[in-house]
Write a structure and sequence with these properties.
Layout: E1 8-12, H1 17-28, E2 32-37, H2 40-48, E3 56-60, H3 66-80, E4 85-88, H4 103-131, E5 134-139, H5 143-146, H6 152-172, E6 177-182, H7 197-206, H8 215-226, E7 238-239
Parallel strand pairs: 1-2, 1-4, 2-3, 4-5, 5-6, 6-7
Helix pairs in contact: 1-8, 3-4, 4-6
The structure holds nicotinamide-adenine-dinucleotide.
Nicotinamide-adenine-dinucleotide binds next to helix 1.
Length: 248
């Protein structure tokens, strides 16, 4: 498959889980990659498993840090000659009832899961507009649509990602920059290891598909949204590879 031949993609959260699966799918589809994450060792492992010949750069960065994201955008654009596709996938998750949640826990989750999306778009989208087009893919969650018990901070951040996606799509689509979200259901990655076994068992039982998804079952949606002509008519949308958890 070479549907992304010639495209240059910046993927955050690329060291693990869904971001790593998107990196693999994009490399197989012919894209050049700038992979960003806090986890340098994880990035090296993912990059080492990509098909030989893939053009890959690695960037160790905290995506909630404005100066670091600004530098990341500059480095990625310099290294690859531009960025055509931005995938905002970095994220954290914790399970805390509201009555026990410390403001610092709320703030950190919103910084990593929502502020980072703003920052990466803030420093990459102007280059896409100047270049005449691009694709932004923000990884939200089905919990941003339906909410999750013990997950007020995460649900708020992910709902924020969907609202941000719609607003930015209205702002920049006429410049050729298409902005969409992906809201996966529960996917087997290290992220959900922190959720209680009770939460996981209850969740699995209520899913129409009766099982959690795998990262490689989410990545093709990110390929579609980045592709031409497959992704050409999507903007401001939230696609839901979610095992039937939410049916908007
Ligand atoms: N796994 C699920 O069930 C699920 C469901 C819906 C949405 N999501 C979303 O998918 C995205 C990827 O999650 P995943 O399940 O692959 O998790 P994961 O833990 O496997 O991967 C997340 C990656 O983000 C990186 N990261 C965390 N904080 C960072 C920071 N400040 N700066 C840079 N990188 C940082 C981590 O190092 C990690 O490599 C997240 O946004 C998550 O909220 C996951």
């Amino acid at each position: 498959m070479t549907v992304l031949n010639g495209r240059r993609a910046l993927i955050t959260g690329a060291a693990s889980g869904i971001g790593a699966a998107i990196a693999r799918a994009y490399a197989e589809a012919g894209a050049a990659l700038a992979l960003a994450d806090l986890d340098a060792d994880g990035l090296a492992a993912v990059a080492g498993e990509l098909p030989a010949g893939a053009a890959v750069t690695r960037h160790t960065v905290d995506v909630s840090d404005a100066a670091a994201v600004r530098a990341l955008a500059g480095e990625a654009i310099d290294a690859h000659g531009g960025i055509d596709v931005l995938v905002n996938c970095a994220g954290i998750l914790s399970e805390v009832p509201l009555v026990e949640m410390e403001p610092a826990t709320w703030d950190r989750l919103l910084e990593v899961d929502l502020r980072s999306v703003f920052l990466c778009c803030r420093y990459v989208v102007p280059h896409m507009v100047a270049a005449g087009g691009g694709r932004v893919i923000n990884v939200s969650s089905q919990l941003g649509l339906k909410g999750g018990e013990g997950l007020t901070h995460y649900s708020a951040a992910k709902a924020g990602v969907i609202g941000f996606t719609k607003a930015l799509a209205r702002e920049v689509s006429r410049h050729g920059v298409l902005v969409n979200a992906i809201a996966p259901g529960p996917i087997v990655t290290p992220l959900i290891d922190g959720l209680s076994p009770q939460w996981q068992a209850a969740k699995e039982a209520e899913l129409p598909l009766g099982r959690f998804g795998r990262p490689e079952e989410v990545a093709p949606t990110a390929v579609l949204l980045a592709s031409d002509p497959g992704g050409n008519l999507y903007t401001g949308q939230t696609l839901g590879p979610n095992c039937g958890d939410v049916m908007p």
